[in-house]
Design goal:
The protein is an alpha/beta fold. It has a single domain, classed as Aldolase class I (TIM Barrel, Alpha-Beta Barrel), CATH 3.20.20.70. It is built from ten helices and twelve strands. It has an eight-stranded parallel beta barrel with strand order 1-4-5-6-7-10-11-12, surrounded by eight helices. The model has no long low-confidence stretch (mean pLDDT 91). InterPro entries: Aldolase_TIM, His_biosynth, HisF, IGPS_HisA/HisF, RibuloseP-bd_barrel.
Length: 265
């Protein structure tokens, strides 16, 4: 069994880490370099940096942060937000990123995923999916749409089908964020997570909603006999619980391991 990963997420705006609830009510959460150093020392498996401003100015600020972090920590770095071209990806990789995530730009131009995969390999291309429940199909099964522009625009595109298409184009990993659960502390959307995992052959990172150690462990655990106990994600993204000192990477891993989850030490 592959070890499950714990990945702190740093939403960066104007050089600071910020956090909100369902993409709203943004508040300051600290200095990105200080937080990255802390999580590296605690044993994080990777770090994800997302430029929530996604403008040219904010992306330049983020890349400066990535460069400073890359010189101090020794775990993989994923950078996303405002990546619109292969040249933007090259800038991120040159700054110290090990892989790059795309969301809105890929929805606008799916061919960008293939271009990025050809340039750097699928292992460097992460599709970020901001998904929100938007009703049900004829059989009563939930339907999620992929949202663009930081969760502000409903594209009408089925999020699960979009993940499948992106993998076919060359995405090597899916960062799956539930807009409904984001920042609420009510737990990950495990039904969404399992649905995407069953649809794609690449690793899926569960994101949005972590509020307790039990919820994080459950996102990583396989489904039980009833088929609904665990999310079976390959990794869990964690933000508020870490940024505001409610837990540490070691506590998360220790608890997850106590529940039978294989983690990296």
């Amino acid at each position: 069994m592959l070890a499950k990963r714990i990945i702190p997420c740093l939403d960066v705006d104007d050089g600071r880490v910020v956090k909100g609830v369902q993409f709203k009510g943004i508040q300051d959460a600290g200095d990105p370099v200080d937080l990255a150093r802390r999580y590296n020392d605690q044993g994080a498996d990777e770090l994800t940096f997302l430029d929530i401003g996604a403008s040219y100015k904010s992306r330049a600020t983020l890349l400066d942060v990535v460069g400073r972090v890359a010189r101090e920590v020794f775990i993989p770095l994923c950078v996303g937000g405002g990546i619109r071209t292969v040249e933007d990806m090259r800038d991120a990789m040159n700054a110290g990123a090990d892989k790059v995530s795309v969301c809105t730009s890929a929805l606008r131009n799916p061919g960008l995923i293939a271009e990025m995969a050809r340039a750097y390999g699928s292992q460097c291309v992460v599709l970020s999916v901001d998904a929100k429940r938007c009703g049900a199909d004829a059989a009563g099964r939930p339907v999620w749409h992929a949202f663009a522009k930081g969760g502000r625009e409903d594209t009408g595109i089925d999020a699960v089908k979009w993940a499948v298409q992106a993998v076919e184009l060359g995405a090597g990993e899916i960062l799956l964020n539930s807009i409904d659960a984001d920042g609420t502390g009510a737990g990950y959307d495990l039904e969404l997570t399992r649905t995407v995992i069953e649809a794609v052959p690449v690793p899926v990172i569960a994101s949005g909603g972590a509020g307790s150690l039990e919820q994080i462990a459950r996102a990583l655990m396989p489904p039980g006999p009833e088929g609904n106990s665990g999310g079976d994600a390959d990794a869990a993204l964690v933000a508020s619980m870490l940024h505001f000192g409610r837990t540490t990477i070691a506590e998360i891993k220790t608890y997850a391991e106590s529940k039978g989850v294989t983690v990296r030490w």
